[in-house]
Amino acid sequence: MPIGLTIALITVPLVLFTARAIFPQLPWKRYARTSSWPDIGLLSFGSIGLILHCAAMFYRDLVQTIPGTDGYVKWVNEMGWVSIVLYVLPASVVVVALRRQHPLAVAIVALTFIAVGVTMYNSGPLSTHLTMIALAATALVGTTSMLLRTQLRRKGPDTGMAD
């Protein structure tokens, strides 16, 4: 994976989540939907799985520094049915975790995940696959940084949920 793309995949989320922290009008209130903490946990779990899958393909030596990942890296890079499951499972978990978000945003994330999977396993050009990874990452980070609201409990007589 080109270093420029790797830097972009790290920088874009940092910029979008920083923007969310700085600008009070974010998340985009008109379209934002509340997600539960269990959904956010699933979103985090699935996202880590996707990052690990991608890293196992492009940064094998780095992933193998994590104890117990030798078999995982091998399975991912064999590109067989185990590799497919190790991609589809976390991608599906992410989509399920986003189910309460705007339907168009969920559809875009799901379609970009499908495009990543198809370009990964169809022996097509690497540049196409890397483009799909960039689009999927942008769709996912855009959805979570701009649309996702969390439930915060307020103390006192008002026990309603707020952002």
Automatic annotation (TrEMBL):
Keyword Transmembrane helix belongs to the record: yes
This protein's UniProt keywords: Membrane, Transmembrane, Transmembrane helix
Transmembrane segments: 6-28, 40-59, 79-98, 105-124, 130-148
Protein name stated in the entry: Uncharacterized protein
